[in-house]
Each structure stands twice: as C-alpha cells, then as structure tokens.
Amino acid sequence: MKRLFLLAAMLLVTISSFAQDGKSIYQKYSDSEDISAVYVSPAMFKLIGKLPDIEMNSGEVNFYPIIKSLTGLYIINSSNKNINAQLYADVEKFIKSGRYELLMEAKDSGETVKMYTVGNDTVVNSFVMVARDGDETTFICIDGNMNRTDMEKLLAESIN
Fold it and tell me: pTM score, two decimals?
C-alpha cells in the first residue's frame, strides 16, 4: 500500500511538472523565428499602478485596482506557419489542464478568437486569449489576483 501511495505521489509530481502555464509557453516560443514576444513583469505593473488615472476614449477609467493586482503578462504573436499549429495545441493543452472556463468564442471568415478565465466569484486569477487568423496565431495570458468586481466595473465604465 505504501508503494502504491508513493508511486501515485511521484506520478502527480511528474505530471504537474509537465503542466504548462503562460510563462512556460512564452519561454518555449519567445526566441523562435517569426515570433513577436512581450513580457510585462510584476515590477512594471507596480510602476504603472503608480500613474494617475488613465483616460480611455472620452471618459476617465481607473485601471489602478486591476493593474496593481497583476503578476504577469505574456504575449506571443506568431506568423511562422510551422510553429502556429504547435503553439495553438500547447495553448489548448494548457487551457484543458487548468480550471479555465470559456468566456467567449468568436468565429468570422476563418478567424477564431477564444477567451478563457480562471478564478471564483470574487477573484480572477488568470485570463487567456488565443486567436487564429490565417497564417497568424496570437496568445495572451494575464496572471494576477484581479478583483472580479473591479474588472466588471472597469468593463462597464469603458463601455459607457
């Protein structure tokens, strides 16, 4: 029985070490040919969070509550046909391995955009967007502990 428990524990550790996250996808693809990559660190979010309210369109929108809670932003944009399929597959595997919930899917003339989030009723821990448009694939992952109410308020303010 102890051997079975030990084997199960080792298997779980091995599986979790292969699980991907936004950072690992970024690291895997960021140095590839025909890839645009952007990473924004927690230190940058702290710096941005100290700026005054940011104006969006014609109204004032306070991004501070969201920005101060972010811990990472990873963006990969690929125009490399050989990488696009693997990048999309890795993102799909990443989404399926977590507790992500599909927020939205849009399809139009060969373009597909999917948005996912993970969290609970009060906090959003991660937001992921993956888009495919012809020869281009884009992956965006935003990590943090974003207050769901602040995010909803921000969205409502930006629409008005």
Answer: 0.76
